[in-house]
UniProtKB/TrEMBL annotation:
It comes from Mesorhizobium temperatum. Keywords: Methyltransferase, Transferase. GO terms for molecular function: methyltransferase activity. Residues 58-158 form the Methyltransferase domain. This is SAM-dependent methyltransferase. GO terms for biological process: methylation.
Length: 228
């Protein structure tokens, strides 16, 4: 199924942000996986930590080219996967990747806004065993709502996994300045309050939060799960 034929059973995503993302990725998507492997660090660690239960369901919010879903689908061969993205361009690439990998029967993709989505309407499922957000919160306006929407869409024993840019807290100042300038060109804004927001949203649902700093603050990795 091509991205232009993807299900439209959802509220229309905000047009200006969708256009912006399509503009960013129209050409970038062709070199995205090759180039991002050098600086979107921690994604494989997130996938390894998903620990999907047998026959489980996994949703990625802001799935981009589908790179993470392909790797996760190989690692958890009996799980079903769902990918949501606001960019038709990215979904076009993701859809082709699923077909190439023989995963189209096990992966459903849909266009939508990660801050306000109706999973039941998009995927026929209201909740998921695992939800993850990889380097997308830093590109989503109103990203805090993505955190609350994801927690609301978790199954009773589900977990939410997040990896994104940290604040480069233990890295040299010049590196931080260069990185921030580079990221701004792609409309990426590392979320300084990520930990605080995850803590307060986690507390609201009575879950537990594990928050880790990777590579001297280059990236942050968090897991929200059931309190044990
Ligand atoms: C940096 S890419 C990350 C892609 C993938 N998760 C990865 O780790 O390679 C960010 C993705 O978030 C998507 N995105 C941005 N804002 C969004 C929103 N409001 N709702 C859904 N997806 C969004 C972009 O279209 C893009 O595909």
């Amino acid at each position: 199924m091509s991205a232009t034929e993807l299900p439209a059973r959802h509220a229309e995503p905000p047009a200006r942000h969708a256009e912006l993302m399509d503009g960013v990725y129209r050409w970038q998507r062709h070199i995205y996986d090759l180039t991002r492997k050098y600086y979107l660090l921690g994604r494989d660690r997130l996938i390894a930590g998903l620990d999907v239960p047998a026959g489980g369901t996994v949703l990625e919010l802001g799935c981009g080219t589908g790179r993470n879903i392909v790797l996760a689908a190989r690692r958890y061969p009996d799980a079903r996967f769902f990918g949501l993205d606001i960019s038709t361009e990215m979904l076009e690439t993701a859809s082709a990747a699923m077909a190439r990998e023989g995963l189209s029967g096990r992966v459903a993709l849909a266009r939508g806004d990660a801050t306000d989505f109706d999973a039941e309407a998009l995927f026929g499922l209201a909740t998921f065993d695992r939800i993850f957000v990889s380097y997308s919160l830093s590109m989503i306006p109103g990203w805090e709502k993505t955190v609350s929407a994801a927690l609301a869409a978790l199954s009773p024993n589900g977990s939410l996994h997040v990896v994104d840019f940290g604040q480069q807290e233990a890295l040299p100042g010049w590196f931080r300045t260069l990185l921030r300038g580079w990221l701004r060109k792609f409309h990426v804004e590392p979320r300084e309050s990520l930990r605080d927001v995850l803590e307060s949203e986690t507390a609201k649902v009575g879950a537990s939060l594990r928050f880790r700093t990777l590579y001297r603050g280059y990236a942050w990795l968090a897991v929200v799960g059931q309190r044990s």
